[in-house]
# Entry
Amino acid sequence: MAVGVFFAEGYEEIEALTVVDLLRRAEIETKMVSVTGNRQVTGSHQIPVQMDALLEEVDFSEIQMIVLPGGMPGTLVLEACAPLMEQVKAFHQEGKMIAAICAAPTIFGHLGLLEGEPACCYPGMEGDLTGAVVTDGPVARGRNIITSRGMGTAIDFGLAIIESIQGPEAARSMAEKIVYSGWKE
# Structure
């Protein structure tokens, strides 16, 4: 089983690549997936990155979690990708994990997935977290949803994902390995 991190042109590099880096350090299989039809995707700060797969190549039965990085216009492009949105809804309905950071949690709000769930996002976008119990911490965890606020919370977000897959000790251990003192379980 793997985690799929989905990339669109204009993604926020730190939010996406910090998660990929931390998960791979934790030896969690992590696939970087392009929704653009191209194997190379360029972030909002003009950093091109080579993907592992194209969306149409992904077998979602082998994915245990969908992760959506933020950034503009990346978040808008992810939300406009109908096949990915169908998978996000299916994962949520099946109780499988979905996660998003920065502007991307608004996608969950627009899809109606946050009703009664704690959630956070980039400051000023909270109005798009329809139905959520909005928090202002670095990470919010619901039943099967993890959200985070932005680039400055990317390590917390990655550690929360590790915790959801491997448990609190694995997240704590990773925080120590990367000399990150901000981790709070």
Notes: The mean pLDDT is 97.
